[in-house]
Amino acid sequence: MSTAAILAGGLGTRLQTVISDRQKVVAPVDGRPFLHRVLDDLSDQGIGRVVMCVGHKASTVRQVLGDEYAGMCIEWSEESEPLGTGGALAQAGALLPDDQPFYVLNGDSWCDVDLEALAAFHRKGPAEVTLTLTHMADASRFGAVELMDDGRVAQFTEKGRDGSAWINAGVYFMEPAFLAGLPHRPSSLETDLFPRALGIYGYRGGGRFIDIGVPASYSRATETWRCPAATSHGALVLVDRDGTLNREVHHLSKPEQVVLLPGAARAMRRMRDLGLGIAVVTNQSAVGRGLLDTVTLDAVHARLWDLMDDQGASWDWIGYCPHLPGGGCRCRKPKPGLAQAAATALGRSLSGAFVIGDKGTDLGMGRAIGATNLLVRTGYGATEPTDLADHVVEDVWCAAVRIEQLLQGERREH
């Protein structure tokens, strides 16, 4: 059972002029306590146990939650004096797992992130803590987080810097060893502990971000909840299959070999919410090699569809090239044939299209049709050259987040 700790003990001094009779995490947003919305997302993503770290006006939080919410067990760690985020988490240590990582969230903010994808990124390296990062057009109120090439945090920049940047979105995946080293005294994770710690990594998978810490952002929270996504005006996204949506298997030839990658279904749902036309396009030379027939390939795709459908995700069209390399066909990526067939089948233009894939052949197709290319670091993407990529992202969930940002006009470099 996955556990999440929620930090909800702050004094909320900046919000006192708007909300003074309760803890800010239960301030109403569009008629519901903000914390309910945070917990709804945790429940939807399979979190079974929540540890509430409370202090200031703790009783108002207890009254709202009790000991169970949306099927999740709620346990309580209450501070008798202000401890800050670091001290509060240290105090809650006895309630948190000592044998597996757990999630930590700020209770006064929410970020659209796939928790499974965050955990998968964390487990690829030696991280003690992985921070979810989201991109802000104006990061001056939050400060910035700069990463090294391997994802480790290079530095935290203080608030007040003008311009856009990746910021800490307040959603963490943490090893018990880091928790064990926290001081049992007032401290801040963000300003005292993370900047001085080793093994802090950043995951650029944070999408929409809502923060209710100040009156201006609190007043915008309702609008953000009611208008959850940009619209794409009919753009087409072409998504590779193996290594991008499902686990890479050399010459995959059996339906039971299909395993979705973390974040894949949520990514497809997000792109659907954006109004994108979604086509899955895949080279399948295994057919030409005689390793599987088209009936079996259809069964493989049916399995992929079922796994997506179980999580409320889908696509509009799927196409494949059965030919061997060097056969001279027009449909084998990097040739543009599959992209053109998808556009024709869906009645969409290739102008403004996006391509998501883990290989140079995917990006070569994108270059051939003038698409925006997103290289994922899953599958073969971990070692693939980036010269054809417009954006390099960790996984298909991060690709969906980046596309949303691009549709909103925030151009970013990889």
Keywords:
about 30% helix, about 425 residues, disordered C terminus, 6-stranded parallel β-sheet, about 25% strand, 8-stranded mixed β-sheet
Task: Report on this structure.
Helix 8 packs parallel to helix 13. The chain is of the alpha/beta class. The chain has 13 helices and 20 strands. The strands form five sheets. An eight-stranded mixed beta sheet has the order 5-6-4-1-7-12-9-13. Strands 17-16-15-18-19-20 form a six-stranded parallel beta sheet, sandwiched between helices. Mean pLDDT is 92; it is low at 410-414. The longest helix has 17 residues, at 294-310. The protein has helices at residues 34-44, 58-65, 84-91, 115-123, 176-180, 189-193, 215-226, 264-273, 285-288, 294-310, 337-346, 360-369, 396-407, and strands at 2-8, 28-29, 32-33, 47-54, 68-69, 72-78, 102-106, 109-111, 129-136, 144-147, 153-157, 165-174, 200-206, 209-211, 236-239, 277-283, 317-321, 354-357, 372-376, 391-393.
Average pLDDT over all residues: 92
Biggest β-sheet strands, sense, barrel: 8 strands, mixed
Percent range for β-strand residues:
15-25%
Outline type: elongated
Strand runs, count: 20
Question: How many H/I helices?
Answer: 13
Largest beta sheet: strand ordering: 5-6-4-1-7-12-9-13
Ends apart, CA distance between termini: 36 Å
Radius of gyration: 23 Å
Helix content: 25-40%
Uncertain segments of ≥5 residues (pLDDT<50)? 410-414
Output the structural class: alpha/beta
